[in-house]
Amino acid sequence: MNFGFLRRNGLSLVLVLLFLGSLAGQIVSGFSVLNDERIERGQPPIAPLQYFGQGQFLSATFENWESEFLQMGLYVLLTVRLRQRGSAESRPMREEEEKIEPGQKPWPVRAGGLWRKLYAHSLSTALLLLFAIAFVGHWQGSWRQFSEETAAKGGIPPSAWAYLGEAQIWFESFQNWQSEFLAVLSLVVLSIFLRQDKSPQSKPVEAPHSQTGA
């Protein structure tokens, strides 16, 4: 076993395992809940593989991914210009020269010109693009679920575009967006006064509350 690889990539590997474990738990429990609901409505239960195409699964999954990518994308952009005095999550109040470790520069930097300019904004661009993709996935999944429930009640399901005017999809989105922004706000403010030894999200334990940046 390559323990050097595990040590160099331990954080991402553990997060991948936590993600997969949580996703598996969501699938198993969501599949059970959906079949219980179908039986209550007098509909036959679905097979396990069919669950992945159901509106409930698509909506619940992409709804959460959407809020995460929105939060991270906006946070990356907001921290470029905005500051919070004393927060470990903020850049220093005074502009300081960025320290760059020795090593080969990324190829877009070496290429220069347009490639370098695009690369300079690639992180926020990627996160907001992932948000847009997740929003579309949430929209389509939520629309399918809403249409199934409407048809089961004898109503006429709306078109996908008309569904964007329904309160349901925005209720689902905003309840997730507000929780993500609250979580980031909590980290920004709490890191002014509280510490976690050796965490890059925290200032050094001995640092004064006024120190800004980790």
TrEMBL record:
<feature type="transmembrane region" description="Helical">
    <location>
        <begin position="177"/>
        <end position="194"/>
    </location>
</feature>
<feature type="transmembrane region" description="Helical">
    <location>
        <begin position="118"/>
        <end position="139"/>
    </location>
</feature>
<keyword id="KW-0812">Transmembrane</keyword>
<dbReference type="Pfam" id="PF20554">
    <property type="entry name" value="DUF6766"/>
</dbReference>
<keyword id="KW-0472">Membrane</keyword>
<dbReference type="InterPro" id="IPR046657">
    <property type="entry name" value="DUF6766"/>
</dbReference>
<protein>
    <recommendedName>
        <fullName>Transmembrane protein</fullName>
    </recommendedName>
</protein>
<keyword id="KW-1133">Transmembrane helix</keyword>
